């Protein structure tokens, strides 16, 4: 356990301060407008604030323990996400061994590869090895009914819940000249930009939202909310350049990419939910639905952010 | 032994939550301390563990599963889990050889203040049917103690977590849905009551719910 970087402590303290303000505001709103818990919007808001507290405390603890803490935290997040995803698929008895292997072999091994920093393996392990081996396991069971659909569902579950999510802790393995020992701040930057983009889109949408962007997929998303949220999250990202190896313009551009990927990733995940006929992925976190409901924007932005930074800034 | 059993119970609950993230849906009753007979569908040995896991602590300590003595007395480990951890009411399922009347055993457990978990199908359902026909035990128990609430409980998804013949569980989210309590009518016939109980349980299954929506 090494002492965390002062920038990180400042950032966590700043987030905690914002959450204290949000909690007080949520408490006052509830006392004035919904003393008996009758306003769904305010109850939902307060549930969300509580869940953010849990998230920031978990992130803080993991960050204090350095790489092992972050790898374990996201490993468990992957596990919970995969559990939600597979619950909604059509997998059946013939897939039992393939699914069990996904949970108990592929997932732990992927995070182990991240931990030992074997880039050449963790970047292809799931897209190549798991991609080819799991259908073999399923085929050996001999059940050919809807085979392609079932195999594809397991592949997608692994790519989304394990491969993509694991690119968050993978940010720790990048070697950026002049930024040694501070890689945790890249994770903090990614998570803060993604989460604040979600919040700001929600706020802008509530304030000005008129035109629905995808009425069939996500009735709560509006053009006004999207533009306002994306623009303000990009500005916020640029303002956070002091904790990154980027200039303010670069930080803003990367934030815009993160925000766009997060937004469209959210649409894709909504499409999957619609297809499966559910509103939320699960019920693990009060007010937030399931784990994937919270992770969906990070899922799509993490690998792209990782590779952009690796290509342009990393020494290896 | 009590302490070890407590630890083992906590470990079993933790494991069940890790694998299934199990969630209780209190649809027809509230989770309050009241004497009840929970009757549930039965697809796996994990069924009563899930039901037991989602009960609030205080209720769980007073709730005893009713299980087959032939299975739970077979080995020292099963005996420890069945008797010491779950405090099961062990009944002899063999009509010819048994000396104790299962209904009397269950009534006695109810009289001592316990709630019960029963599986009226009598055995694990390994067919494609959602529910096997109920045995008549539930009717006789309802007649013997007509004041006790009979609560239908649908346990969903556990058959996918651990299909028949597999020994590695796959993590999937399960739910346990509690319905509105039943009581046997003063002059209700056996078949009518059993049909009513089966319907009440089936109505809680998500397949039924999504078909009617």
From TrEMBL, chain A:
Stretches that traverse the bilayer: 7-29, 49-82, 94-113, 119-140, 147-172, 184-204, 225-243, 249-272
Gene Ontology process terms (BP): peptidoglycan-based cell wall biogenesis
Molecular function terms from GO: nucleotidyltransferase activity
Keyword Transmembrane applies: yes
Matches recorded under Pfam families: CTP_transf_1
Source organism superkingdom: Bacteria
Any one cellular-component term (Gene Ontology): plasma membrane
Record's keyword terms, sorted: Membrane, Nucleotidyltransferase, Transferase, Transmembrane, Transmembrane helix
Annotated protein name in UniProt: Phosphatidate cytidylyltransferase
Lineage of producing organism: Bacteria, Pseudomonadati, Pseudomonadota, Alphaproteobacteria, Hyphomicrobiales
Automatic annotation (TrEMBL), chain B:
SMART domains in alphabetical order: PlsC
One GO MF term: 1-acylglycerol-3-phosphate O-acyltransferase activity
UniProt xrefs under Pfam families: Acyltransferase (PF01553)
Top-level taxon in the UniProt lineage: Bacteria
InterPro entries membership: Plipid/glycerol_acylTrfase
GO biological-process terms attached to the record: phosphatidic acid biosynthetic process
Pathway: Lipid metabolism
Keywords recorded for this protein, A-Z: Acyltransferase, Transferase
Signal sequence segment: none
Ranges where the Phospholipid/glycerol acyltransferase domain occurs: 36-158
UniProt xrefs under PANTHER family: 1-ACYL-SN-GLYCEROL-3-PHOSPHATE ACYLTRANSFERASE
Name under which the protein is recorded: Acyltransferase
């Amino acid at each position: 356990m090494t002492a965390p970087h002062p920038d990180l402590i400042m950032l966590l303290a700043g987030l905690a301060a914002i959450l204290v303000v949000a909690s007080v505001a949520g408490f006052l709103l509830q006392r004035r407008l919904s003393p008996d818990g009758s306003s769904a919007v305010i109850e939902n808001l307060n549930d969300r604030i509580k869940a953010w507290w849990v998230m920031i405390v978990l992130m803080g603890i993991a960050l204090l323990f350095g790489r092992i803490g972050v790898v374990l935290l996201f490993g468990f997040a992957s596990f919970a996400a995969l559990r939600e995803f597979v619950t909604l698929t059509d997998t059946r008895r013939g897939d039992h061994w393939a699914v069990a292997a996904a949970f108990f072999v592929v997932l732990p091994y992927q995070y182990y590869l991240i931990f030992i920093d074997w880039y050449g393996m963790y970047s292809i392990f799931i897209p190549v090895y798991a991609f080819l081996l799991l259908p073999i396991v399923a085929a050996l069971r001999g059940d050919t009914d809807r085979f392609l659909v079932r195999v594809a569902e397991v592949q997608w579950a692994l790519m989304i819940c394990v491969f993509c999510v694991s690119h968050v802790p993978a940010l720790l393995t990048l070697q950026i000249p002049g930024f040694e020992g501070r890689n945790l701040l890249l994770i903090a930057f990614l998570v803060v930009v993604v989460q604040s983009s979600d919040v700001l889109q929600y706020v802008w949408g509530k304030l000005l939202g008129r035109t629905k962007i995808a009425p069939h997929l996500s009735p709560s998303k509006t053009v006004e909310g999207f533009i306002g949220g994306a623009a303000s999250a990009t500005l916020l990202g640029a303002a956070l350049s002091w904790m990154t190896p980027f200039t303010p313009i670069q930080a803003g551009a990367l934030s815009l990419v993160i925000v766009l990927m997060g937004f469209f990733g959210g649409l894709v995940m909504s499409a999957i939910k619609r297809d499966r006929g559910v509103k939320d992925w699960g019920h693990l976190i009060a007010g937030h639905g399931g784990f994937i409901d919270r992770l969906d924007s990070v899922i799509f932005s993490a690998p792209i952010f990782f590779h952009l930074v690796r290509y342009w800034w990393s020494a290896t | 032994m009590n302490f070890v059993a407590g630890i083992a119970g906590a470990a079993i609950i933790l494991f069940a939550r890790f694998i299934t993230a199990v969630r209780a849906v209190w649809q027809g009753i509230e989770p309050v301390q009241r004497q009840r007979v929970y009757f549930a569908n039965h697809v796996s040995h994990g069924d009563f563990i899930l039901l037991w896991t989602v009960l609030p602590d205080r209720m769980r300590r007073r709730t005893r599963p009713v299980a087959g003595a032939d299975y739970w007395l077979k080995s020292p480990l099963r005996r420890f889990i069945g008797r010491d951890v779950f405090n099961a009411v062990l009944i002899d399922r063999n009509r010819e050889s048994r000396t104790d009347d299962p209904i009397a055993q269950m009534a006695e457990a109810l009289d001592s203040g316990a709630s019960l978990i029963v599986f009226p199908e009598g055995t694990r359902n390994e067919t494609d049917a959602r529910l096997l026909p109920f045995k008549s035990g539930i009717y006789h128990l309802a007649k013997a103690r007509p004041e006790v609430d009979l609560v239908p409980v649908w346990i969903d998804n556990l058959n996918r977590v651990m299909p028949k013949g597999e020994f590695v569980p796959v993590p999937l989210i399960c739910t346990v849905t509690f319905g509105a309590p039943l009581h046997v009518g003063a002059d209700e016939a056996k078949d009518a009551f059993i049909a009513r109980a089966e319907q009440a349980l089936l109505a809680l299954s998500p397949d039924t719910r999504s078909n009617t929506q």
